[in-house]
Design a protein that fits this description.
About 80% of the residues lie in helices and about 0% in strands. It is mostly helical and about 160 residues long. The protein has one domain. The chain is elongated, with a radius of gyration of 20 Å.
Length: about 160
């Protein structure tokens, strides 16, 4: 394992742990909200927003880990019918398309976050700045994109050596 793989593994594991903590926080918030609502007739006004924001962040923080572990859901009907050189070309094509989608999300997402920041928009109940909420999307896609670039480079080196 080279240094880049080691570093990517550590970062993605850290994000995975962070996502797990976020999911546990959702459980706690939900429990506090239920107790407040039904025992004290005082629900948390911010509970739904916070749980949605935490779940969104957890999903996008797990994206780099899925990419690093190569665990994305995929349809492999064509891949299962080819082998050797054709399979390597197919795999490279799929990774390039995957990277193109990530670049598109960054291209659209980053200016959107800049606008949200400049507008100072906050969520209705919890008053969380919306640029923070939306930033988890390009962060997750950006880190996954870096991992894909490294994977594509490795794939191209293998093609050169075969």
């Amino acid at each position: 394992m080279n240094t880049i793989d080691w570093l990517a593994g550590r970062i993605t594991r850290g994000l995975h742990v962070l996502a797990t903590i976020m999911l546990l926080a959702i459980v706690v918030i939900n429990g506090v909200n239920v107790i407040g609502r039904y025992m004290f007739n005082r629900p948390m006004e911010t509970a739904d927003e916070l749980m949605i924001f935490l779940l969104t962040a957890a999903v996008f923080f797990c994206l780099p880990r899925c990419t690093f572990e190569n665990e994305h859901i995929r349809m492999d009907l064509i891949r299962s019918h080819v082998s050797g050189w054709a399979r390597r070309v197919w795999d490279l094509l799929i990774e390039l398309l995957h990277l193109a989608m990530m670049i598109l999300v960054l291209y659209v997402g980053i200016p959107t976050i800049a606008k949200l920041f400049s507008w100072g928009q906050v969520s209705d109940a919890a008053k969380v700045p919306m640029w923070i909420v939306h930033s988890v999307i390009p962060i997750g896609f950006g880190l996954a994109g870096l991992i894909l670039v490294l994977r594509i480079a490795q794939m191209l080196r293998r093609v050169e050596h075969s």
